[in-house]
Amino acid sequence: MTLVARLKVTLFDVEPQVLRRFDVPLKIQLNRLYDVIQAGIDWTDTYPYEFRAGGVGWGASDPDGYYDGPLPANKYSLLDVVEDLGTKTIYDFGDNWHHVIKVEKIDDAIPGADYPRLVMAIGTFPPEDVGGFPGYADFVDAMADPKHEEHHRMLEWYGGMFDPEEAEIDRILDNFERLAKTWTPKPCEPKAVPKPV
Questions:
Q1: What is the β-pairing status of strands 71-72 and 56-59?
Q2: Under a CB-based contact definition with an 8 Å cutoff, are residues 124 and 164 in contact?
Q3: pLDDT (tens digit per residue) in 45-76
Q4: Domains of the chain (ranges plus CATH)?
Q5: Is the omega angle on the peptide bond into residue 116 within 30 degrees of 0, that is, cis?
Q6: DSSP single-letter state for residue 29
Q7: Which residues contact 137 (CB under 8 A, 6 or more apart)?
């Protein structure tokens, strides 16, 4: 039976609270886990990322080899992190956004279910390029107050109104469905049996 991990992802130091809870295969590679997180918060992989746990880091390696960076995320799984480090909490420190990723439980997969599988979503994740959590606080203030000196500029930059309470669950479900389809192995075509001559 395949095992899945229930993950709770919260954005550190942001109000109102933003949270995603979802299930992923326990053996998911960390680079794919990053894709799931990006899909769950509707970000576009703009910045480098690094998962940190137990003093170890995993992320995208430098293709040019100019610096000794984190271990390659595509060579390690969530299971490796949990087993090797005995940790249940991982931190993703991309672009000064601190995502706290907690493994809440490990259980058998639901037969026939597609993964990743959304369990809960609270709040809208900040726009990726807003300037970290200090910029986000300014952004929320400006968007909430039509008389704020930055309101119109932020409205134009964001492309419309912003509701920090709206989780946009349908968009997350679409993103997760797209990932599940991408990662599902394609069935093998049966080989044609030559007809006797």
A1: parallel
A2: yes
A3: 766 788 888 888 888 766 555 556 788 899 99
A4: 3-124+165-183 (3.10.290.30), 125-162 (no CATH)
A5: yes
A6: B
A7: 15
